Amino acid sequence: MVKDFHLFSDRKTRPYQHPVLFKNVFHASGDDWKRLRTIVSPTFTSGKMRKMFPMVRQCLGEYLDVLEVYATHGRDLNVKDMYQKLTMNVIGRCAFATDANALKDTRSTFVRHAQGMTEFKFWKMLGLFVLPLPVKKLLGLKFAGNEESNQFFLNLTKQIVERRKREGNTGKVYNDFVQLLVDAEAKSGNDGVAEGGPDEREGDSVEAHHVNEGKEELEVEKRTFAGNYGNKKLTIDEISAQGWIFFIAGSETTASTLGYASYELALSPHFQDRLYDEVCAAFDADGEIGYDQLSRLPFLDAVVTETLRLYPPVLRLDRKAKQDYRLADTGITISKGQDVEFPVYAIHHSELYYENADRFNPDRWMPQNRHKLIPYTYLPFGAGPRNCVGMRFGLMEVKLSLSHIIRRYRFVRSKQTAVPLQFPTVANLCIAKSVVVGIEKRFK
């Protein structure tokens, strides 16, 4: 994924290739991927995240009001479902400039289709994998997801883009993801990779360990994106595809991470107390915490990192070999065109790399202990040039949410809290059936 990235730069080919949706930076291959990545990456720099920060904070304020009701009446909280509503509101506002209102109106058109976006029918997935192409065409099997919901968001994105173009130079400023993509333009050579200057790169490096980013990784990134890759602007279909993958990646996975963190903190009150002490000291007199401060709280980062280790959003990563590749002195040769999978969940839970690997222990990620960790054994966001482009947005949302929630409320184990959690065997995502905890107010 890093040293010989040029030989494994593409993901494996899926048996279902949606004609528009798969024009996104996650699924694209070759120079198409390099071009998209060069254009999309600058929309996730620290500077851009600071502009989105107030929108995330506003959505969080609405969420805290709902939590107040649960905490006041001592009701158990299905954090998995509740966080999905929060992340749905955040993505709706930050990506599509739309008020999803998922906390109050669960039957709205936006919410219904947002839920449909993450519905993957098992029978459709099975058919796409095992049936021959003529049969799939006969049955109309093109994609495992909900086609109606996918089309809704494609149309929504196109409507937003067309409306923004009609508005022209009216002076109205938008800081949402769609507008950033409309304005985005690929830079020549490596300019797009390092957009924002040294200050922004320094700010981004604070959380670089989440993608194993070091000197070697930056050199590989620099070599990978050297050159020009055709059209420097995104087409409307490409903008729609990026919005779609941003929603998929930023809604379900972020909600799951928040849910698992809340669950583990409920089971480990001593860690929750330490987190409470750290975040409380970081809030200002107005009861707020800034973007830069969030990324500089070591125990908050350790809690999030350990949560992502125990519950990586994606269970495995994959790449396709561009040519025959010999694995050092093992005698094993990976043939050209062969798919290679990296078992992220198994690596994260291996006693070879982590002592008491199945135990929640944020201390293993504290600065004084990081030297004990083995490189590339932590892969929730991947590694190398194809790491998760939206990582910093996801971390910002998770850390901001946790800091405000823990400051006001305490998660506790209740009679409805399942230990251990139950996971269905499906697809490639780490999604529990239900995550329930109790919640209490810290101040009466």
UniProtKB/TrEMBL annotation:
Signal peptide: none annotated. SUPFAM superfamilies: Cytochrome P450. It is a peripheral membrane protein. GO terms for molecular function: heme binding; iron ion binding; monooxygenase activity; oxidoreductase activity, acting on paired donors, with incorporation or reduction of molecular oxygen. Its main location: endoplasmic reticulum. PROSITE patterns: CYTOCHROME_P450. One of its GO terms (cellular component) is endoplasmic reticulum membrane. InterPro entries: Cyt_P450, Cyt_P450_CS, Cyt_P450_E_grp-IV, Cyt_P450_sf, Insect_CytP450_Detox. Its cofactor is heme. Heme binds at C388. It comes from the Eukaryota. It is found in: Endoplasmic reticulum membrane; Microsome membrane. Gene3D superfamilies: Cytochrome P450 (1.10.630.10). Keywords: Endoplasmic reticulum, Heme, Iron, Membrane, Metal-binding, Microsome, Monooxygenase, Oxidoreductase. Belongs to the cytochrome P450 family. May be involved in the metabolism of insect hormones and in the breakdown of synthetic insecticides. This is Cytochrome P450.
